[in-house]
Amino acid sequence: MGLSDAVRSVINQYAGFTGRGGRSEFWYWELFALLVQIVISIAAMAIAVPSLTYLGSLFSLATLVPQIAVGARRMHDVGKSGWFQIIPLYNLYLAIQPSDGPNAYGTGPASAATAMA
């Protein structure tokens, strides 16, 4: 499957969360989305039209559903649930979650730093 076939496949299955998706479909779609975003960004900087910067956001919104769908199909291909895609969001939550007070593993890093001062 080439780039154009992969893009066509993802667009044809715009909200198709069932079935399987191969590596080539997934990675060619990722490459396509990245290249379009780069072209939009370069065009926005070169032309210097403020409203053109919103085009990248519009493209991201327009491709959000197929992005999630192709990811779910790819996860199905490796034998996992499509819900495994949300693991990076959980990691982000853990990274920004504050650690208040002591717990079973000791005092928090901020508490230890103030205790030394």
Summary keywords:
117 residues; mainly alpha; 66% helix
Summarize the model shown.
The chain has helices at 3-12, 23-47, 53-62, 64-77, 87-96, 109-116.
Task: Explain what this protein looks like in three dimensions.
The protein is mostly helical and 117 residues long. It has one domain (3-116). 66% of the residues lie in helices and 0% in strands. It has 6 helices and no strands. It has helices spanning 3-12, 23-47, 53-62, 64-77, 87-96, 109-116. Helix 1 crosses helix 2, helix 2 (23-47) packs antiparallel against helix 3 (53-62) and helix 2 packs antiparallel against helix 4 (64-77). It is flat, with a radius of gyration of 21 Å. The N and C termini lie far apart (61 Å). The model has no long low-confidence stretch (mean pLDDT 86).
What's the topology here?
Elements: H1 3-12, H2 23-47, H3 53-62, H4 64-77, H5 87-96, H6 109-116
Helix pairs in contact: 1-2, 2-3, 2-4
